[in-house]
Structure formats: C-alpha cells, structure tokens
Amino acid sequence: MNIYEERSECxxxxxxxxxxxxxxxxxAASQGRGNASVSRQPSQTSRPSTRQQGKEVRxxxxxxxxxxxxxxxxxxxxxxxxxxxKNEETVIDIxxxxxxxxxxxxxxxxxxxxxxxxxGETVRVRVMKTKKQYGYAKLLEIVKASPDRVSAPCPxxxxxxxxxxxxxxxxxxxxxKRQLVVDNLQRIGKLNVFxxxxxxxxxxxxxxxxxxxxxxxxxxxxxxxxxxxVTEGGLVGGFYAKGSHRIIDMDTCLIxxxxxxxxxxxxxxIGSHLGISAYNEETGRGLLRHVVVKxxxxxxxxxxxxxxxxxxxxxxxxxxGSIREAIPHVxxxxxxxxxxxxxxxxxxETRVLWGRDVIYDYIGDVQFAISARSFYQxxxxxxxxxxxxxxxxxxxxxxxxxxxxxxxxxTISLFLAQHADQVYGVEIVPExxxxxxxNALLNEMKNVKFEVxxxxxxxxxxxxxxxxAHVIVVDPPRKGCDPRLLDTILExxxxxxxxxxxxxxxxxxxxxxxxxxxxxxxEVTPVDMFPHTVHVESVAMLVKRDLE
Length: 548
Fold this sequence. Notes:
Blueprint: H1 21-31, E1 49-52, E2 55-57, H2 69-76, E3 89-97, E4 102-107, E5 110-115, E6 122-130, E7 134-144, H3 170-187, E8 195-196, E9 202-203, E10 207-208, E11 223-231, E12 234-240, E13 246-249, H4 258-274, E14 288-295, E15 302-308, H5 316-326, E16 330-337, E17 349-355, E18 358-363, E19 366-371, H6 380-394, E20 401-405, H7 411-417, E21 422-427, H8 430-442, E22 448-452, H9 455-464, E23 471-474, H10 483-492, E24 496-501, H11 504-516, E25 519-527, E26 537-544
Parallel strand pairs: 1-13, 5-7, 10-25, 15-16, 20-21, 20-23, 21-22, 23-24
Antiparallel strand pairs: 1-2, 3-4, 3-6, 4-5, 6-7, 8-9, 11-12, 11-14, 12-13, 14-15, 16-17, 18-19, 24-26, 25-26
C-alpha cells in the first residue's frame, strides 16, 4: 500500500485488503476453529449516505438500492439440505471469535457467524443469510453471558464501524489477540507453538508471549480523518458505519485524543456558520470532503488539514481566523485539494494556509517532523513499545549493520540507528524517503542511509556493493512481504530477521517460508496498537539455524 494514499475505510484503523477473506472463511467454517483467521470484505454495493447522531440521513441523489434485481434474486435463493433456514431462530453456543470479531457458533454442525457474541456464551439468534458452508445470524438474546462481556461505553458503538470489540473486557481482548496470532501460526504457517501440557511438561516450539497492552486503552489515537456530509442543520462528520459509506455523525470518539474531537467539532461549527458546503459523492459537488487532525502527544502541537474539492475556499480568512481563535494550540492549518471522484482521502496538492508545514513529535528520544500527508503511527504510546521490542529482538551491540526494508519515514530505522553501527533503509515511496532523510538530519544521525526503490531490487544491489547485513528488519503492509524479498533475505543470510507484522495470517505464511529457508522463529510478541478493534501487531524474532 502506498502509505501516502490513505483511503476512507469503514474502520478507524487498518482493514484487511488482502483479498483472501473468502478462502479463509471457508476454511474456518469447515474446520470449526474458535479463532479462525477470516476476513469479511466490505460490501461493494453500498451507497453513500449521511447519518445524524442516532438518525440516518441519505444524501441527494443516493439510490435506495444498489443491488441489481438478478443479484438480489440469486442472493435470496434458498440452499437445500441445510440444518437451518433464513429467518429461523435457534439457540447456539459460541465456541470462538473470528478475525472480524464475530462470534462463531454451530447449529447442528453448521457454522454461524454472530456479530456481538463472545466466546463461551449461549445465545439465541435469528439466521439472516445462509451459504453452503456457513451463514450469518443476528444476536437476539444472551442466554448465558461470557465473564468477559462488558457494556460498551461508546453511545453509538452499535452503529459505528470504528471499534469492533468494545463489548469485550480489555483483558479478554488481549488474550484473544494472542490466541489469534497462535492460531494463524499453527493453521496457516503449520508452525509448532510452545505449550505447557496439563502435567506441566514443555513441548518445544515458538514462544508466543502475552499481548503487550496499554495501561489506559482509551484516547490513544493521534490522528482523526473525518468524512464530512451535510444535513438541514449544517455539516456533519464522523466515521463510516460498518461496511458502508453512511456517515455516523459524532461529537466525541473515545479512542481519539480529546483535542482531535474539539478541533473537528469547531471546524464543523464554523463551517456551518459560514455556509461551507460538504462534498457529495453522488454528484461530485460541494467543497469540504474531509477534516484531518494530527496531534503530537509529546509536544502538544496540532495540525489541521482541510481536504477540499477545489482550490478556492469561500470566506477563507474568516474561517482561518475563527479556527485560530477557537483552537489556539493549532500550529498548522493546511489545505489539500482533491478533485477526483475517489475514496482516496488526499489529492496531489497541499498548501499551507497558516503556520508551519509540519508539526514535531517524539517517539522515545527520536524527533519526527510530521507533514500533512506523511505517514506516522497513530498510537505513539504503543509505537514506542513496538519499536522497543524490535530493537530488543535485533540484539544489537553497536557493531552491527542493519537493513530496514519497508522503512517508511524512517521511524524504525532511526530507533535502530541508536544501537547499531550502520542502518540502511529502503522504501518504494519517494515522499517517504524524503521525510526519512529530513528526520535523520533532524536527529543528527549520520549512520543511517535511505534509498528509494523496491526492497527486493535495492538490497541485492547493496550486496553487490559489499554491504552485508547482520540483521534485516521487515515491516510490510497487510499483504505481507513480496516473495522476492523473502528470497533476497535467504540469499543475504543475515544472522537475525525481525518481522514486524500488522496481519497475523501473512506473518504466518512468511515465517513458514523463512523457516523452510533455514531460519527458526524463536519468539513472537503481539502488541495491541489498536485497543477495542480486532487488529493486532506482532514482532517476531528469527535466527539462522546453523548459527545456533
């Protein structure tokens, strides 16, 4: 994924774009695993609409149905021979939870996915949709509740798709995320995981440590990307409902920093007062598309980016003046112009309306300049935990040469450079490398070098130049490492490989390839970067077998 093309998603955090959800769900349904790593793709037929708090408002021009009659007929055709039928009510036990946070139950051996149900619960459900190997059911009643069930504190949790498991205790979330990693390693990677049996005897395998969670798992996000719509009462903005482009208007988000909420609310209020129009996806008209807010946790600085459908902003000076007066801690106000009819948030042109073009923040002792479009981890507290574990697994003494593949703006590279002799970072996005070089200069780090290109092309060239890596660190997108990069790693033969993953299934797949190539996965640590969502990051340490 191009890290400079952030898309409008149905969730606040990363979503699965791997395109392998169907096969994984079928596998889960046939095997009946409690933590099956499956992913449901968002509906491709949903139409955009807007929603007031607790009330849906459909924008102008939006059709009532985007599904063709033939498609509706095909979807509604009953499947013969199933133990349940559509609209039937039944009571089932929930035996696990899948990758999407849906409870997994069985009705006479037939797998049902139930949104909102937790492992260990007995629930009454209504069957809503059936396929040959699995179906979907609606939760009607909790007959027996899980000890991990809690009341979700967010008032619009059931509508918004930003969080998926607020109804689960935080301790339960951390345990489930660890088990999700374990299940993927075993099922997809066919890897042995260290376990202790009932007699206390140890069985050899990969050690998967407990998930590293947060002391305070709320208000952790430093960036808000809010789509804007309009009602008769003025501008609305929030996040998309589950699997759709319906905007859920909200005044507060419990996983956003409070200042982000304040800025978004003020922008909506001032924009409505000045008569600023909202962008309409159906017609391609209207001005304000998104409000993007970035908060530097350590320095307190904030950046506001107005994403507009055109360069001209009516009442621009009055708008900027009102924002500065209402939000004095904003250090930068920028405009990004995006005239394309697309779900990509940012366009190609960004200009400063007031203040600086960057804000500054720290992760650990490393300072970073954050521009309007540069990628920066959204949970700075857990980012420091994640990178600290990465440095630990690299096992650096100060004499090593390290290669950081998928280096982005150099966040991991600069962390590693504090403990290594030399670090080389490679990233395919030119703008990211520009930011990485700026950040290296900002921190006066001279033992790090960045280069633009695909890792699988650049790293072999470095090898030809005599660069030998003791450690290679990879931090790929959700689709995992390019197979050619894995081949390159095996050819480079570093003493250690540290794999930072945002997708347990592709992590398991890639670890299997590295294991087959002569490496042993020693330990994996899940890190909870996105509390109350189904997403989990992991850091894996691999060592070369013939060096053990």
